[in-house]
Amino acid sequence: MGRSLTSERRERLALMLVASTSVTFTIAAVSDALAVRRARRRASGPPEPSEQPARRPVDRRTPVAC
Question: Could you tell me the CA-to-CA distances from 29 to 43, 52, 58 in Å, in that order?
């Protein structure tokens, strides 16, 4: 009924707390790095093709009468 934490249980609890905290921070750091890489790649990627057909250059010179 009146169980107390023994030194062995305290050590295990501390070890599990440190391990779970380390795993959590590692996963968060990796996912943040991947998100930043994806955002940079998307920002510097090739431009999307326009939906309008390419226009030919218009010749704006005045015609010369012969």
Answer: 21, 42, 54
- Give the pLDDT confidence score for residue 18 in this predicted structure: 98
In angstroms, the Cα distances linking 11 to 5, 14, 17, 18 are 10, 5, 10, 11
Query: Could you give the CA distance from residue 28 to residue 22 in angstroms, rounded to a whole number?
Result: 10
Tell me the backbone φ, ψ of residue 14, rounded to 5 degrees: -65, -40
Per-residue confidence (pLDDT) for residue 44, from 0 to 100: 78
Tell me the pLDDT tens digit for each residue of 10-61.
999 999 999 999 999 999 999 999 999 999 888 876 666 666 666 777 767 7
Residues with Cβ < 8 Å from 5, sequence gap 6 or more? 13
Residue 13, C-beta contacts closer than 8 angstroms, at least 6 positions apart: 5
